[in-house]
Model the fold of this input.
Amino acid sequence: MNIDEIVKEANKAKIKLMGLSTEIKNRALEAVAKNIEKNKEKIYEANKKDLECAATLVESGKITKATYGRLKLDENKMRDMIQGIYDVIKLEDPVNKTLFARELDDKLILKKVTTPIGVLGIIFEARPDVISQISSLAIKSGNAVILKGGSEANNTNAAIFEIITEALNYVEGFPKNAVNLVFSHDDIKEMLSKDGYIDLIIPRGSNKLVKYIQENTKIPVLGHASGICHIFVDKSADFDMAKKICIDAKIQYPTACNAVETILIHKDFAHQNDLKAALKEANIEVIENPEEFGVEYSDTILNIKVVEGLNEAIEHINTFGSHHTDSIITNDNENAEIFMNNVDSAGVFKNASTRFSDGFRYGFGAEVGISTNKTHARGPVGLDGLCIYKYKLEGHGQTVKEYAAGEKTFKHKDL
Amino acid sequence: MNIDEIVKEANKAKIKLMGLSTEIKNRALEAVAKNIEKNKEKIYEANKKDLECAATLVESGKITKATYGRLKLDENKMRDMIQGIYDVIKLEDPVNKTLFARELDDKLILKKVTTPIGVLGIIFEARPDVISQISSLAIKSGNAVILKGGSEANNTNAAIFEIITEALNYVEGFPKNAVNLVFSHDDIKEMLSKDGYIDLIIPRGSNKLVKYIQENTKIPVLGHASGICHIFVDKSADFDMAKKICIDAKIQYPTACNAVETILIHKDFAHQNDLKAALKEANIEVIENPEEFGVEYSDTILNIKVVEGLNEAIEHINTFGSHHTDSIITNDNENAEIFMNNVDSAGVFKNASTRFSDGFRYGFGAEVGISTNKTHARGPVGLDGLCIYKYKLEGHGQTVKEYAAGEKTFKHKDL
Done:
């Protein structure tokens, strides 16, 4: 099938997926997990082909060693991949939840009920385990999905996709073409042009990829291009706490999007030099470079700025941050409240590491991604973020005429 | 100020608006209502100027009589405008509501709290009363707003805007430049290019305007370009009910977006001809034209299609509808359930007129617009649709390291 046909078929599948029972969806997920388990060797073989090709690309400098590492599927990743599907089975079905029920009038009942969004477009890079992860989240949330992986992983992606499709085709009541994979680079452009047919794009990959996608589509994009997180060490901060949190927020996983990039220190914080020394001792390269405010180092480098006070810190973060996650270290509750209200970020923390900003740590059970959007979903996004709602109204022949004429009035009684 | 400066100032105002108390917001709204009341005559004078100009445009055929009518402010509209503001004061503050609170671990509390979206861009046509309506909704939801009205109403818009600004400038604690108005046609293009600085665009006007905006911006657009609503009269439908609902859905307000355009009749519905006759008797022009499926008549015209059954009806609606509001008339509960699950529209009704699809009728107290989007907000949108949320995490020095190392585990206990 070409991309137009795939989009068309996915839109047919989406209608059938919308009304699917939790039981069928879980049965589909189990079938997928079992088929991957059964066909592990096929996947390793395909992965071996990709790795051979990638090895020459590493040699010629066309891809990085890190990319090669992400591409490689080992026993651990395979186990996590399969376990991940069983974890999704255990999650609560996000669809068909009644968000509210209201008696508009006698025998005229309005319900706001969650539904799948429709068709998701997922564009990802090297990591082939994304296919099974995103497919399971899509299945559980009743969305059709069109996946486009990185070309370095084409063999692995195709193998996993075939195994998933084979499993789904045997599940009674599960629609065909719910999960789709496209291969060519041109397909990305095509996907991005399908507004009205693809309802949400989720990019998983480099800042560059995300930025490109955000700038080249009218379809809503869920995600974040960059993670420029801050910690503001207030005048009243406890030194040990500030040290511990700043080091954790940088060192625990320096390339993570929720790692800290700039530390803002109150000019009257007594341990300014001690803090800098502690950071250096933790093998962090400490710089003080105003030219690099808003730079995401993705490395053990921290930029430091001494600020006049809370207001400058807030303004700095709102100006140079990426509205991802920012934390204040303070013993002043009032300052903490002002900070948390006025910093315009998805996560605003008090006396905690920015690294907590994560769907699993928040207890969502799954994470679709972290969003810095201002509409739909913000912060770590769980299964809920793949749903919207519809209004179901059940009447007994009511018409608007009587209400418009004032002969009848609404009750608007919440049930 | 030029548009760049306005956008910049609005982004400053938005930060201050985010943390504003309900009290200050309501005080601001009251000041606005009182100042409009006090300066009614100024508004009428400005409106008179616009009307004189518009009268010549009607004569030369450049604007319609309907546009002239929407432009004209009379005593009733003025009273509604002022009352509308007092109504918004009474609405619950949508900001700073805790959507959930969770103990991630001892003394590590996560809260998901509603916040304003940020800066709204409102692009509207002839009706100058939109300014006060949207400004009040923006104020109540803590959003900054940039308004662009139709040029026919420039004098009226400017007068109302000045009166609003004058009132707001005297409210202690209320930020400057929260409400902004731009005038030139070029400003629309400029507004649409400000992604990252304007967070949500809400168009209020013709299908053409909405479509233009949707196709020319990367900013999320809340609204609907067209309202192509259907009624499916099932085999088991009660004839009197079908008649009553079909007539109401068309006649009660033929130009409304939630008026019905196409009636799908089950081939075995016994009263097919009676229904057609009844529609004609109600002065509806009944046509049966497959070429016009998906046409929004905005007039007392109904297209009719006889269908094989429920599945064809659902497929027709999902293909030709605008995902706005569709209703089934039936006595078969199972069919109703299938219809309501599988029709992919913001409103899916059973035995009720499509005209109920409306924020006031749903009991929202205010309506920003009706959305056919698949993300953020769908269906009639109330004040909630102008909000998003942020995650507030309060810790006592916790770092991620211990959890990653397995020394500590999360509790994830909902509070």
